[in-house]
Specification:
The protein is of the alpha/beta class. It has two domains: 32-323, Rossmann fold; 331-516, no CATH class. The chain has helices spanning 2-14, 148-151, 165-169, 173-178, 187-202, 220-230, 258-271, 277-282, 285-289, 311-316, 344-350, 358-364, 370-396, 418-421, 429-432, 445-464, 501-513; strands at 26-27, 32-34, 36-37, 44-50, 73-75, 82-83, 104-105, 110-115, 124-130, 156-160, 208-218, 240-244, 256-257, 301-302, 325-330, 404-409, 484-488, 493-496. Helix 1 runs parallel beside helix 16 and helix 13 crosses helix 17 (501-513). The chain is globular and about 70 Å long. The two termini are 41 Å apart.
Length: 516
């Protein structure tokens, strides 16, 4: 039965993609560019395409500018440098393959394109992916984000780099003073917006449709997309959004205000021994990026320009970029894990953070012994994660007119560490992007079946704003079926957000109160 479903999915997917490859140099706003054949010769890959002027020297901590022009034909056959970050040398069993490796530089604002189009007239859906990494690491060149899997399904796939850490989010009064908009920070978001503007201007030459752009991302990439949805500067640059394990699914709070962030920036400069912005700009990139004890964590800022308010405020006012949205989380994140290290006594103590609801919580999730506590801890964490999604969708629907699709992913990434980490944070990426062939993990036919199915949902959503399609289990939108999410992985089908109506009611109140 599984083989029959797999064959049907492959046939449906194959019908979406057209054979061919761009054989001539492509003209962009900056000049001619020539790609190289992918591992599949029907796909052309353009690597290391600059979408902005290098943000170096006096351009450090400034908004990205249009890319420099070149003469002749630029060969785009290798990735550009990763943005400044600490490259992890230790080959950790479950994270190494999702992290950047190789050269780092401030000159890093590049994007990469995979397309199976044979001409500029095809108008294929465009899929722009923002990497994860806590906004401090990551790259568009990571194998797990390889674009051939989705290019095979008819998309023009794009990955990008964006400034990270202090280079992506540093805020300082001197920077705000020199800015024509009287703000600072959010340079990473401005990089992402610049990349989307480049796509809008240039992607038609690669066979893409600039009016059918999906912006997708995981973890920090997803959280940044949540920011782009609320940014007026990103209006009209994308028509769909996918947020994997970030933004909505992370259940995080609002970004810092500009005043608070500027104060953090002054403290950072002082700790670096810099008495002026000029001194900071004169420092070597590696010295600026080097960590300081108890230093600030850099991230998005409510500045009144890139981000005019908190997500809650923007959505309540109906001022968001209202696009179809697909979002969800994984089974073994948000406080859940394959082997919860919690005793019954600890579980009961932890429940006290729910205040007046603690007794009701322990009644709904009883833990008579340590084994019970481990099971209940996971049940509660997973119920809370799913209810967070469904409650967000309900609040979104008050002012939003477009559909939202919610998921809960539970398939375990195979390998010697599978039992330890389960369906961990990031583990869905090779499946939804259909990049299993880029990994040496011991994938089975079942894994490949799941990858075909999930990547088909993602490709359908990019094409139509709806993940549903021929041969796929029906995925109801949040408005079609309230209080449910789509389980993806070992089983595909709609499931209740919580284990019972009673637990659903409790979790709704906990989510409303901010209880984690």
């Amino acid at each position: 039965m599984k083989q029959a479903i797999f064959a049907a999915l492959c046939a449906a997917v194959g019908a979406m993609a057209l054979p061919g490859a761009l054989s001539k140099p492509v003209r962009t706003e900056s000049g001619l560019i020539e790609g190289a054949a992918g591992s599949d010769k029907s796909i052309t890959v353009f690597k290391g395409v600059p979408f902005a002027t290098p943000p170096v020297g006096g351009k450090r901590w400034r908004a990205p500018e249009a890319p420099l022009k070149w003469s002749g034909v630029r060969l785009a056959d290798r990735f550009g440098a990763n943005c400044m970050q600490t490259i992890v040398q230790e080959k950790k069993p479950w994270t190494y393959e999702f992290m950047a490796h190789g050269e780092v530089s401030e000159d890093c604002l590049f994007l990469n394109i995979w397309t199976a189009a044979a001409s500029a007239t095809e108008k294929r859906p465009v899929f722009v992916y923002l990497h994860g990494g806590a906004n401090t690491e990551g790259s568009g060149s990571i194998d797990a984000y390889d674009g051939e899997g989705l290019a095979h399904k008819g998309l023009v796939m794009i990955t990008i780099n964006y400034r990270l850490g202090v280079f992506g989010f540093f805020t300082h009064p001197e920077l705000s003073k020199e800015s024509p908009n009287h703000v600072s920070g959010n340079y990473a978001l401005l990089d992402q917006i610049a990349a989307l503007k480049w796509v809008k201007k240039n992607i038609a030459a690669f066979g893409g449709d600039p009016e059918r752009v999906t912006v997708a991302g995981q973890s920090a990439g997803a959280s940044d997309i949540a920011s782009l949805i609320t940014s007026p500067l990103a209006k009209g640059l994308f028509q769909r959004a996918i947020m994997e394990s970030g933004g909505v699914a992370a259940g995080g709070g609002s970004p810092r205000t500009l005043a608070v962030a500027e104060d953090d920036g002054v403290k950072f400069a002082t700790a670096k021994g810099a008495h002026s912005l000029a001194e900071l700009r004169a420092m070597a990139a590696k010295d600026v990026f080097a960590a300081i004890p108890n230093g600030p964590r850099f991230g998005p800022v409510i500045d009144g320009y890139v981000l005019p308010g908190s997500p809650k405020e923007i959505f309540a006012a109906g001022k968001q970029n209202d696009v179809p949205t697909l979002t969800g989380s994984n089974a073994d994140e948000n406080g859940a894990s394959p082997h919860p290290n919690v005793t019954a006594a600890q579980f009961k103590t932890q429940a006290q953070r729910y205040g007046d609801l603690a007794a009701e919580f322990l009644k709904d999730y009883p833990a008579a012994g340590d084994d019970d506590a481990a099971v209940r801890a996971n049940e509660a964490a997973r119920d809370r994660a799913r209810v967070t999604l469904s409650e967000w969708a309900a609040a979104r629907a008050v002012t939003g007119k477009t559909p939202a699709y919610l998921y809960f992913y539970n398939h375990v990434l195979p390998g010697p560490d599978a039992g330890q980490y389960g369906a961990f944070h990031t583990s869905e990426v090779p499946f939804v992007l259909n990049t299993l062939k880029r990994s040496d993990r011991p994938f089975t036919d079942d894994d490949r079946r799941i990858a075909e199915m999930l990547s088909s949902y993602w490709a359908n959503f990019a094409a139509n704003g709806d993940p549903n399609g021929k041969g796929l289990p029906h995925w109801p939108s949040a408005s079609e079926q309230a209080g449910v999410v789509m389980e993806l992985g070992d089983r595909c089908g709609a499931i209740p957000a919580a284990g019972s109506d009673q637990k659903l009611d409790l979790m709704r109140r906990l989510v409303a109160a901010g209880g984690r």
